[in-house]
Amino acid sequence: FDIEAWMPGRKAWGEISSASNCTDYQARRLGIRARAGAAKDGSSAPVFVHTLNATAVAVPRIVVALLESFQRPDGSVVIPPALRPWMMGMDVLVPPKQK
């Protein structure tokens, strides 16, 4: 499964997060097993677990997508409405004044 964001500079969607079911491939290499109740044959032998491989968030790619999509000519960046609850009341990021 992938989550993508529109990246105007590329004129394409770019992956910002990904998750894959690796089944028991990684668990076999790492020796990760668990007893999950009775196996099909009636025993309770440990079995290799299934694992997930995931990128939480590709931060640089998200920053690129936000800047390309929401940056104004003056350098300020409009915070998308969906992110505002986590921005401590800010709706626009303004660059510091030049000295």
List the topology elements.
Elements: E1 2-7, E2 12-21, H1 25-30, E3 33-34, E4 47-48, E5 52-55, H2 59-70, E6 77-78, E7 92-93
Antiparallel strand pairs: 1-2, 2-5, 3-4, 6-7
Description:
This protein has 99 residues and is of the alpha+beta class. Helices cover 18% and strands 28% of the residues. The strands form three sheets. A three-stranded antiparallel β-sheet has the order 1-2-5, covered by helices on one side. A two-stranded antiparallel sheet has the order 3-4. A two-stranded antiparallel sheet has the order 6-7. The chain is elongated and about 70 Å long. The model has no long low-confidence stretch (mean pLDDT 87).
